[in-house]
Amino acid sequence: MYYRVVYYTKTTVDGKEVSKRHRLNFSDLQEATNEAEAKASWLSRLDGDALQFSGRDRHIYARALDAVKELDVPLDTVASEYADARKLLDGGPLIDAVRFYARHHGKGIKRKSVASAVDEMIERKTTKGVSKLYLDDLRYRLGVFKEAFHCDVSAITPDDVATFFDGLKLSARSHNNFLCALRTFFRFAQKHDWLSKEVDLLSRVEKRNGKPTPVEIFMPSELAALLKHASPQVAPCIALSAFAGLRAEEILRLEWSDVERRPGFIEVAAHKAKTATRRIVPIADSLSRWLAIVPRNGELVWPHSKAWYFEALRNAAASAGITWKQNALRHSFISYRLAELQDVNRVALEAGNSPQMIFRHYRELATPVQARTWFAIAPDAAPNVVPLSLGAKQFATKGATR
């Protein structure tokens, strides 16, 4: 038994159009049916050239139809999409791209934007009662991350994350802190099925080994220019670091009550200090004058975000034409205060460092003359400004005590 497919095509013979009968015999009904459907489709499109398939071509076409039958997609559409995909992959295997997509967007993976995922994680951590310091750190680091990725968590690739870290240009310690925060975030995302558990987005980011770096300080002329070009909100914060040695994190947590509670001193509470040890720092006359002119917009000395704070510092340096040096304001305070007092133990108490650290890194970086110039930098006096400190003379007298 055999099955025959009969169809007609038009051709030209001696300048005349004539009909030509074609007959194809098949031993398999399915093959005959496939061929009949193909010829009918082509005839409806008047695609006469395509009808001139060889027997091998017909078998290839039949297999192609079988392969896409369950997809309910026309064969030409499949071929077009395949060609477009190969072009985008620059000739790479399409199956590799599909496997990658399946890992990131496979069954069970829910769509969740990076911003929403970060916010939900912060909310969960807050509900669990983790420390405020930890929450502030997460808000800052993950805030930087979500500003860089306006997409779903599942759309991020390891290359994207590696590029993000390269752009941060951080010290080894800050790099590792960011790495830790993002590892926590990605695990949270995997736990909630926003990210496949088979994906390691940090696979191309390595932990850095911290290497000792030379201590950099600002010259008094650089500090004066920096304060001159700083915004009214950030100038007193620069003064807090330059004249009292407060760390950036301590300034961001500092409240006005910490400045006013003990006349002439700043109280850095244990839960606000990096070393978790309470300390008090004398307020120099120059610092009191900077604090007196700051606009007060709430309980916090710096009432804005951490990112805004560092941006304001960099903007002030750029406006002053100064190269910004990481932690150089605090380094400068310690160096100039040590040159002024010649007392390692006392400077260590004020700065919240060990005497060994002060002696090892800050000795002989500045002269007493430079120190006097440094601590004399102050804004122009205004008749309605009341200083908060003991006064320049008392500060200097206290500093001379050994």
What's the structural blueprint in terms of helices and strands?
Elements: E1 3-13, E2 16-26, H1 29-44, H2 55-68, H3 75-88, H4 94-105, H5 114-128, H6 132-148, H7 158-168, H8 172-191, H9 220-229, H10 235-244, H11 248-253, H12 256-260, E3 265-268, E4 279-282, H13 285-292, H14 306-320, H15 328-341, H16 344-351, H17 355-362, H18 368-374, H19 392-400
Helix pairs in contact: 5-6, 6-8, 9-10, 9-14, 10-13, 10-15, 15-16, 15-18, 16-17
Average pLDDT taken over every residue: 83
- SSE string: EEHHHHHHHHHHHHEEHHHHHHH
Q: What is the topology, as strand order, of the major beta sheet?
A: 1-2
Query: How is the main sheet built?
Result: 2 strands, antiparallel
What would you report as the Rg, rounded to the nearest angstrom? 36 Å
Chain oligomer state: single chain
> How many distinct folded domains?
3
- The CATH superfamily of the largest domain appears as Intergrase catalytic core
Proportion of helical residues? 40-55%
Number of alpha- plus pi-helical segments? 19
CATH architecture of the largest domain: Orthogonal Bundle
Number of strands: 4
Query: In terms of per-residue confidence, which ranges show pLDDT below 50 for 5 or more consecutive residues?
Result: 388-402
Give the DSSP E fraction (strand runs of 2 or more residues). 5-15%
CATH topology of the largest domain: hpI Integrase, Chain A
The CATH class designation of the largest domain is Mainly Alpha
Beginning-to-end CA distance, first to last residue: 117 Å
| Helix-strand makeup class | mainly alpha
> What shape does the CA trace take?
elongated
